[in-house]
Write a structure and sequence with these properties.
By secondary structure, the chain is mainly beta. The protein has one helix and eight strands; from the N terminus they run αββββββββ.
């Protein structure tokens, strides 16, 4: 039986050795509106996490101009130490904001090992 948690850390170390640093920005939530106080309760502030990534270009045959556009990039990054990532997150590469268009988690054994994201500036 595989130790997926140990594998998650090993994958992180591999990305650290071979990749480049990125920052993932998690959006804050406004909370729920309280009609009695006319304020929002339970708001959260945005946060950031740093990890490492590898970039891959899409093949010309994959670019359809709608779902995958000419300047889109495939970004692979480890899940170790990160919250669950979705399309509401932003990825900063050298300070430039990249939007997450699509994201897939590679998660055998119910432990996410890494993410494959389609990003667009």
């Amino acid at each position: 039986m595989a130790d997926w948690n140990a594998e998650q850390k090993t994958i992180y170390d591999d990305f650290k050795d071979d990749g480049f640093e990125i920052t993932i920005r998690t959006p804050g939530e406004p909370g729920d509106f309280n009609a009695d106080t006319l304020q929002y309760d339970g708001a959260t502030t945005p946060s950031t996490d740093t990890t490492f990534a590898l970039k891959k270009k899409y093949k010309a045959s994959q670019i359809d101009g709608k779902i995958i556009q000419q300047n889109d990039t495939k970004l692979l990054f480890p899940a170790y130490g990160l919250p669950e990532i979705d399309t509401s997150h932003e990825i900063l590469i050298d300070g430039a904001v990249q939007n997450v268009i699509n994201i897939e988690a590679v998660d055998p054994g119910n432990v996410t090992l890494f993410y494959e994201a389609q990003i667009r500036s």
